[in-house]
Specification:
The chain is an alpha+beta fold. Helices cover 29% and strands 20% of the residues. The chain is built from five helices and three strands.
C-alpha cells in the first residue's frame, strides 16, 4: 500500500514527483503527514473488516516517508497487526514497513 505520507505543510517531495503524481496521492493532510496511516490502522482493526480477510499469515506492507518508520509502528501498536520489519531503498533510507496479522490486540 502506498498511502500519501507527506503533509501539505511539509511538501518535502521532489519537484519531479509533484509533477508526475496528483496531489491527492501525495499529500495526506494539511498538517498531519501520518493521517492516512491512522485511518488505515482504525479501519484494519475493525472486526467487520478483518473477518473478511484470509487472516492466517496476512501481511501489510506500507510505503513510508523518510523518518516515519517509528511513528507508523507506534500507530499500529494497539492494533491486531504486529510489526515485522522495515525495508530500505537503494539509498539505504527506510522506505517500507511490514505488519503481520496476529488476530487479537495484545496489551
Amino acid at each position: 500500500c502506498n498511502p500519501p505520507y507527506s503533509s501539505l505543510r511539509e511538501q518535502r517531495l521532489s519537484e519531479s514527483v509533484k509533477r508526475r503524481d496528483p496531489s491527492v496521492a501525495l499529500f495526506a493532510h494539511d498538517t498531519d503527514a501520518l493521517w492516512a496511516y491512522r485511518q488505515l490502522a482504525t479501519t484494519l482493526s475493525d472486526p467487520q473488516v478483518t473477518s473478511h480477510l484470509a487472516m492466517q499469515h496476512t501481511r501489510l506492507v506500507f510505503e513510508i516517508g523518510h523518518g516515519q518508520a517509528d511513528s507508523v509502528r507506534k500507530i499500529f501498536r494497539s492494533s491486531p497487526w504486529q510489526y515485522v520489519d522495515t525495508y530500505r531503498d537503494h539509498k539505504a533510507l527506510q522506505r517500507a514497513v511490514v505488519f503481520l496479522y496476529i488476530g487479537a490486540v495484545l496489551s
